Amino acid sequence: MIDLHTHTTASDGTDTPFALVNKALSAGITVLGITDHDSTAGWAEAITAARKPISLALGAEISTLTLDGVSVHMLGLLFDGENEQMQTMLSEARDTRIPRMRKMIELLQADGYSITMEDVIKAKPEGATLGRPHLADALVMNAIVKSRDEAFENLLHNESKYYVTHATPTPEVAIQTIKAAGGVSIIAHPMASRRGDVISTATFSNLVSAGLNGIEVDHRDQTAAERIELRKVAVDLDLVVTGASDYHGLGKLNSLGENLTDPAQWERLESLASHRRVVTP
Description:
By secondary structure, the chain is of the alpha/beta class. The protein is 39% helix and 14% strand.
């Protein structure tokens, strides 16, 4: 069982890296992707928890923005965690999250919502990459909404008046940076339209030219019809097809292993990295 997209308390998940690896072991996962938002901070702890039969595909989910303003998430896996260019890109993405959060809070306050930056920091685990889920958690703590899902559905989705984008690389730059660091890139949930605007299938050709390796096809936020369309794109462009849970712990309904990557597809994806970086206890 291969699940290549999960989150820990190093970003907006609710399980520590150690706890996540243990849960994955219990769930029968054999290859686990650790892909926190714009961060590799959870890698070291996850490695300490790893034991047979699980292997780790370490990476990050990188926030990007197309030139026409569409938010795209790019999974980078198996890259060199010490690569300076890669860590600079991740650091700069994290740095822009603070002013973005302040602006979103200001917009909410202007409409009478009782929320502060201090509330959000209190809701965020120490060392985690700041993100909208932490604002959602603060809204829950302040009894403004009942759950993260309600917060995103009513207040924090991409089309909301309270949504503020933040300075991020383009998908092409992210792909090129991942490749330069020896890793592989997979576009995450590219047709998850309930999150906001999505890219067109025609855009994939440009991403392939930049070095894109795969498409996350099987994801709970994509319909059966969208998955069929994405599989066709992957075949036409000779891209790897992946599936994953996008697990966040208690923060979302997603369950570990609810969508998986075929072993043959994983074998091909791993072969495209510059070196074998899978962590095998």
